[in-house]
Amino acid sequence: MLHSFSLLIALAGLVGLVSAYDHSANNNMVVYYGQNSYGATHESDPANWQQTLSTYCNDDTIDVIPLAFVAVYSSTGELPELNMANTCSAASGVFPGTNLANCQFLQSEISACQAKGKLILISLGGATGGAVFTGDAQAEAFATTIWNLFLGGSSSTRPFGSAVLDGVDLDIEGGSSAGYAAFARKFRSISDGQSKKYYLTAAPQCVFPDAYVGEAISAVPFDAIYIQFYNNWCGVINYDNKNAWNFGTWDNWAKTTSPNKNVKVYIGAPASNTAANAGQYVDAARLSQIATETKNQYSSFGGVMLWDASQAFANGRIDKTVKAALGGSTGGGGSTTTVAPPTPTGGSCGGVSAWNSATVYVGGDQVSYNGRLWTAGWWTQNDIPGQPDKNGDGAFVWKDQGACSSIVNAAALIQTDSVHIVNKAQETNVVVAGTATGPVVESTATPSKRGMQRFRRGSHH
User: How many DSSP H helices and E strands does the chain contain?
Assistant: First the structure.
């Protein structure tokens, strides 16, 4: 009995060491995970490609991690598609009768991050062209689908198993604004009143109002807005230009228009000079200055958002520098382990069509070109394999999977959005269902309510 009591005291002490997420704070750090942005722009440096999710939860620096992306809303089996680049995609294995990636191996990592006080969100959209609704009815039904797949509901096709995520993020960079207000309203109606707090966030462009989620965030109470102050004239690079830098406009929106007058507004910035379009990056010292001055001036300021985790860690931990400047803790954790990408599996290009400049390809499509196998990272037409895409952002839409006699697992390099840019999505407004296919992986049993309760955390509101 004495031994058991001592163990309880020890466990209580460990719980006290957890740095729980504080939504009211103004020094939070949000970092997107899933698209392997560094890997997309540094194909010759695999050691620094996107690591395991738990790598980024290893200390107190990052507070919120949106998992990117649910990139297509309605695909095979009327379920969405989830693409997390070299971590998990349809090429890694799908649920029977669907093109929904089975990523249930991430269940333990997500729960471990949550146990350390991190919020883990599911992010919808990206720059793919498949993140669109036909109208309010479809959007409302999709809110229920997302609830059942990732949050407090239940389904036999839960991509992360019994892990219960902490909310939904809308990162809509193309298509249409149709349905998003209805989606948000339905999500609120399902999630409000639950024993666990569920968060609703969005990542609009800094141009006000945002073309895609502007209506939604002004009609429905959102908890936080991670504004993309990059790839736009109002970005962090123009902080000193009072006619360009418009955080004040967003602060005014938060206090006068938003249904949630306590909504938090974040500065979103590229985590390195290859994480956004050319010329959009400011270094750690400059971003720290901008964030600190904004924090001191505007009461709606909630912290900083970075795109993305792989870029931040490869760039001298810019996330740590900025978090420290804002007065937040960056301690805890220990050494991290680098996880190498999949090794060549061998094979041939049999059955794979040759690349054609006139053909429209979407993320996951494969072609042969110059004796090598290539996989499309996003929607493309007339982008030559092996050359930067025609947008001029330095990204490579076609990922080299190796010679036809030595093919790399396609799951290693697929990404839907390497530099978080708008123009890829704007090339088409057609609803595109990804065609990447992979082995069918049987799901585990539908999580029971008891199983999901194991990972619930108390509300911090």
Answer: 12, 14
**What's the helix, strand, coil split of the chain in %, to 5?**
30, 15, 55
In a domain, 457, yes or no: no
81 is catalytic: no
What predicted TM-score, i.e. pTM, was given to this entire model? 0.75
- Name the nearest CA neighbour of 381 among 353, 397, 360: 360
Q: How many distinct structural domains can be found in the chain? A: 1
What is the pLDDT at residue 452?
26
Q: Which range of residues forms the domain containing residue 219?
A: 26-336
> In which residue ranges of the chain is pLDDT below 70?
1-19, 128-129, 333-351, 362-364, 378, 389-395, 405-416, 418-461
Catalytic residue, chosen from 173, 215, 427, 442, is 173
Query: What's the distance, Cα to Cα, between the start and end of the chain in Å?
Result: 36
* Domain CATH number, residue 177: 3.20.20.80
- Cβ atoms of 221 and 197 within 8 Å: the answer is no
Q: Domain for residue 448, yes or no?
A: no
Edge-to-edge order in the sheet of strand 398-403: 366-369, 372-376, 398-403
* Residue 369 forms part of a structural domain: no
Residue 101 lies in a domain: yes
